[in-house]
């Protein structure tokens, strides 16, 4: 959904609340504290009180936004919806300064909203990769450097002596990518990551010659492309994951390079989310309905 569609579909707070309620509860509002359906609507007129209910059982009051990313927000929901749509549709990544200008927010508010949206995008998906899987690692953060990691002569030294953050990823060809910040790139850690994200029995792993992949390589079909010699050998290549790294890096260096590495996991999660749902018919509705699963 683009901005105009969001504004037409959700012209005011009430329409936003109605939508969230239908996604979270269907026709039957339930108390967010005790789960009871014996609830009364309070018919508030003040904008930030619209959608408030009282529970007859536990006597608490609640809204559909309880325990979601919209919990206790003072921001009109329409702005949230616009922010979600803008972030999903941004080709690279959106800066909080840009969002602040677009939605007339202050920059810190925009930044906080975006971090919450990214945190939602980072919720673990139930997707398990299978089939042909490419795994690789990369580094982000710090200044962009011209020197390709492929120029590193000693693969065992990867990640050492750099201020950059190591990110490990695996992608199913034609399917999802799963990537995360890696504490280290030892064979054991890489094996844990691959076993966590992929169905080892139903997959073939494609990697470069880095020795860290040999441990998991003993437990599944493993094809190695030696990048010192060539980049593609028939089906054996890591071009898909390399393509994802370049998306991630474009977003990172174009927009977020001045932020702390503490937030790297959230930016990685955003890039994965956008990659995984790039062909989805309605990512906005998917995002909202996932955000209502508590
Ligand atoms: Zn209750």
Question: Could you describe the 3D structure shown?
Answer:
It is a single chain. The radius of gyration is 22 Å and the shape is elongated. The longest helix is centred in the C-terminal third of the chain and has 18 residues, at 239-256. The protein has a domain at 129-258: Nucleotidyltransferase, domain 5. The protein has a five-stranded mixed sheet, sandwiched between helices. β9 (232-233) and β10 form a beta hairpin. The protein contains ten helices and ten strands. The model is unreliable at 144-157 (pLDDT under 50). The chain has 294 residues and is an alpha+beta fold. The protein has helices spanning 3-9, 13-25, 77-89, 96-103, 107-121, 187-197, 214-217, 239-256, 264-276, 283-291; strands at residues 39-41, 53-55, 61-62, 129-140, 165-172, 177-181, 198-207, 221-224, 232-233, 236-237. α5 (107-121) crosses α9. The site of zinc ion (ZN) has 8 residues, from loops.
């Amino acid at each position: 959904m683009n901005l105009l569609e969001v504004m037409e579909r959700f012209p005011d707070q009430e329409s936003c609340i109605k939508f969230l309620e239908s996604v979270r509860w269907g026709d039957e509002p339930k108390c967010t504290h005790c789960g009871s359906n014996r609830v009364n609507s309070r018919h508030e007129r003040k904008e930030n009180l619209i959608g408030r209910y009282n529970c007859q059982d536990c006597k608490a009051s609640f809204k559909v936004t309880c325990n979601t990313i919209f919990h206790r927000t003072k921001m009109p929901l329409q702005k949230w919806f616009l922010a979600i749509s803008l972030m999903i549709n941004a080709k690279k990544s959106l800066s909080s300064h840009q969002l602040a200008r677009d939605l007339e927010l202050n920059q810190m508010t925009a930044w906080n909203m975006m971090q919450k949206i990214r945190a939602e995008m980072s919720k673990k998906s139930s997707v398990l990769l299978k089939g042909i899987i490419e795994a690789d690692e990369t580094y982000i953060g710090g200044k962009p450097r011209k020197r390709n990691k492929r120029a590193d002569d000693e693969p065992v030294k990867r990640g050492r002596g750099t201020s950059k953050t190591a990110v490990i990823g695996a992608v199913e060809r034609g399917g999802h990518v799963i990537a995360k910040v890696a504490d280290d790139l030892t064979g054991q850690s890489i094996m844990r990551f691959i076993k966590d994200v992929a169905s080892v029995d139903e997959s073939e792993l494609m990697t470069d010659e880095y020795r860290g992949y040999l441990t998991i390589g003993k437990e599944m079909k493993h094809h190695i492309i030696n990048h010192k010699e060539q980049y593609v050998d028939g089906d054996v290549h890591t071009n898909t994951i390399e393509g994802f790294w370049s998306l991630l890096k474009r977003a990172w260096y174009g927009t977020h390079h001045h932020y702390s590495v503490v937030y790297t996991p959230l930016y990685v999660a955003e890039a994965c989310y956008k990659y995984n749902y790039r062909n989805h018919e309605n990512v906005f509705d998917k995002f909202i309905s996932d955000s209502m699963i508590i």
